[in-house]
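hiii, so i know i said id send this last week but things got crazy w the move. better late than never?? heres the sequnce for the chain we talked about at the cafe, plus the structure i predicted for it. fair warning i was half asleep when i ran it
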Amino acid sequence: ILLQIGLTENESKLYLALLKLGEGTVDEIINITPVRRPTAYKVLRDLLDKGLVAELPGKPLRFRILPPEQTLDKMFREKVDEIKYLSETLPKSYTKFINEAQRIHSRAQSNVDIGRDIVVLKGMKSVVDIVARLENQTKNRIRLAAKTPFQSAEEIELINNEFEEMGFPESGKSLELRVICESSMLDVPGFIKLVRNIEIQNKYYHHLPHLPMEFSIYDDFGAILELNEKTEHNLENCKMIFIQNRQIIELLIEAFDSLWNKAKPVVIHNK
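okay and structure toks below
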């Protein structure tokens, strides 16, 4: 109860020790409590400031407990008043703070790609947010080159959940999606589920034994290029480059189309 009405742990220990003694020196008090002498002096001063104990003149100094029904009752009523005030004001203050925090966060997210040709993204959440915005802006074609995932089954499931929550606009269902994947990915159930969750009607898949890198291209205005070495790839620390430079995107399109022409077609049936 002492902690709940505002005393610290050490204040509570010394208060209870002095309550048993009635009055005593610092040495007498610390003999029945585990608080060290240097700490005890400071804590007793704090109890003095809170009006819970009195200091008696003389050498050595002695401290006396003051009537609990008076001193603790005052602290109890102050704590009750504080709780009542918070219960009345905190919900409104919290709502105001959350709205302002969300506004600042949204502004920061919307500014991530303004005036920058290349931005480094870290973490799956930031990547998914950018990908969602790119997909909403794409009108014609998405090109995706996907290497064999290093993620665990749990991580693949998390990516699936992110895409299921993200969804696609109605206009996105008329897009064309071209996916080049490494041949080994066709045996990964998590990958198959992932591509099925992409709600685009015109989906085409090719495969190659090996891809030099993993990237995606959205029409001719945006691209995402994976940075991580395969042994470093994970959801928390994944790093990717978000590209808006048109010349770089044109080079990526040429590279993708060249790989597409060399790759073998494959059919992934929807459920």
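btw Helices lie at 9-21, 26-30, 37-49, 68-110, 124-137, 153-166, 189-197, 246-262. thought thatd interest u
miss u guys!!
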